[in-house]
Each structure stands twice: as C-alpha cells, then as structure tokens.
Amino acid sequence: MRIAQLLQRQEPFLSLEFFPPKDRAQWPGFFDVVRQLRDLGPLFCSVTYGAGGSTQHNTLEIVTRMKQEYGLEPLAHLTCVGADRARIGSFLSGLAQAGVDNVLALRGDPPRGESTFTPDSEEFQHGSDLVSFIRQDFSDLSIGVAGYPEKHPEAPSMDDDLERLRHKVACGADFIITQLFFDNDAYFDFVARARAVGIGVPIIPGILPVQNLAALKRMLSFCGASVPEGYMSDLEHVHKVYGESGVRGLGLGYAKSQIRNLLDRGAPGVHLYTLNKADTCLDIWKDFLRRDGLK
Ligand code: FAD
Predict the structure, then answer these.
(1) ipTM higher than 0.95?
(2) What distance in Å separates the CA atoms of residue 116 and residue 81, rounded to the nearest whole number?
C-alpha cells in the first residue's frame, strides 16, 4: 500500500529503518531482527541504499522479502549515486514486480573524506531529479524525500534548503522523513517554517536511539545534526564510567522521552533508525504503547 495513503489514518505510528548487512552470512540474523520487530506493527519499514550505489540489489531483495515473506510495508531507498536511466528504471521495475509501492528518493552523500558531491550523470544531480523521473515514469509509487531540521550541511542557509525541499515536493514527493535530531524544538521549528513556505505533506521525525558513542560521532561528522551540549557530556561521562552499555541505557532513555514529547506535541509518528537492533526498538515500542494507554 502507498505510504501516502497510510499516512491519512492520522494515528500515531512507528516506522523503522534498516540497512542491508554487507555480508550475506549475516542475513539470517538480520531477518530474525525483522521478524522480532514485525511485532511492533510498524506503519512501514525502510531499507537504505548502499552509499556507493553498488549494493542496490541487496536493497531490492530485502524489500521484496519484507513484503512477500513478512507482510511488512517496505520503503526502498534509492540514490542518484552511479545513477542512469537504465539502472534506475531497472530498480524501479524490480520494485513494481515485487509489489513494493514506496520509494525514498535521495541524492546520496559525497564519498567518505570528500565534502562535495559530484553527480555521476547530468540527469540525476539532485534528489528532485529522481523525484521528477519517478513521478513521470513510475507514477503508481508513493515517493518520500529527506528533510533537514538543522539544514543540510551543504546548504548555504535554512531558507535556501527549504526552497529546495519545497521544489522536491512540487516535483511529486508525498512525504518527508527527517534527518536525525536530538532537540525537538528544531523539528517543530522546521515543520513551522516548511508550512510557511507552502510545504503541506507529512513530515516524519527520524529518531536515533544512541547505542554507540563512536558511531554517533561518525554520523554527526557528515549528517549536519547536532547534539545538545548537556546530552553529549552525559554520553561522554557514562561512556567513561560504564562503557557502551551505559551509552545504550542513556540513549534509550533519551529517545523515549524525545518520542513522548514529539507525539504529545502533535508529530504524526516517529521513524526509528534501528541500526538493525531489536532490543532497543522493542523497549521503545512498549513505552509507545503505554503512552497511548494500549497496554
Ligand atoms: P538533495 O535534496 O539533492 O539536497 C542536497 C543538497 O543540495 C542540499 O544542500 C540542498 O539544499 C541542495 N539542493 C537541492 N536541490 C538543488 C538544486 N536544484 N540546486 C542547487 N542545490 C540544490 N544516503 C544514502 O547513500 N543511502 C541512503 O539510503 C540514505 N538514506 C537516507 C534517509 C534519510 C531519511 C535521510 C535524511 C538521509 C539519507 N541518506 C542516504 C543521506 C542523503 O543521501 C544525504 O543527506 C545527501 O547528502 C542529500 O540527499 P538529499 O536527497 O537530501 O539531496
């Protein structure tokens, strides 16, 4: 089912992001996590697209299995990296054949260590180019795009970035998923500014329960998100005293209170960056149900 349609239900939801494990030997364990997290009743499950664009067949295979074997509603990520019409067309036809109705259209990041993105083709330079192509040639798909509550790192200003986002939506995007953030005010300011420039589609907040300090710092170095000073010093402190288990505990508590506050203040739902880990998400889910008085 198209996510655009699912979002009309207007009930708070959780959705989940996974990444395809590189090593095929890890796939049984990965699908075991998927099976466990199916119990959360996620609105949809997204699957990332390898940074170099070289592992697109893994994304395609995983979304196909999620749909056909696990009865989940998948969202396949797709980037402009290494893209040409034939390659993108074959990926999108693969989705259609598998009965997958949703795609997240992205530009992709510059290669590690580089700060500027060099497009591989004239035709696909920005996320919006992908959105236009999909809307025209694969019009049945529901299309999501990325949004940045703290601005995309390459954008000269928030106003400029919002104008680019408005254009992506005008090209045919149905919904927006945000980059991770740790200050809910940044999300609500972003939504207000987006509405003010005429962006009307749902904006789903992306939440990362921090599980590992080094991995967090690596992500922050390229994604443009920031961590409130007090939270970062608490993370550093528990890491020093208790190691990664302390980081996981603090990260889980922070994510739970962030999610409660987002939903209380009217966010439509929450997209969890699972990092392919079941336990943290199951714990958050219990909290989510308690909040809604469901259990
Ligand atoms: P764009 O919308 O093209 O924007 C990129 C930059 O260009 C911005 O600064 C924007 O302001 C500017 N811009 C846009 N249009 C124009 C224009 N016409 N002229 C000039 N400037 C313009 N990466 C992966 O490799 N695989 C994934 O699976 C993946 N999943 C992601 C999921 C989410 C929810 C998010 C938030 C990000 C994800 N990323 C992924 C990372 C993403 O590829 C990067 O953030 C990338 O740097 C930008 O992608 P975009 O689609 O937002 O690009």
Answers:
(1) yes
(2) 13
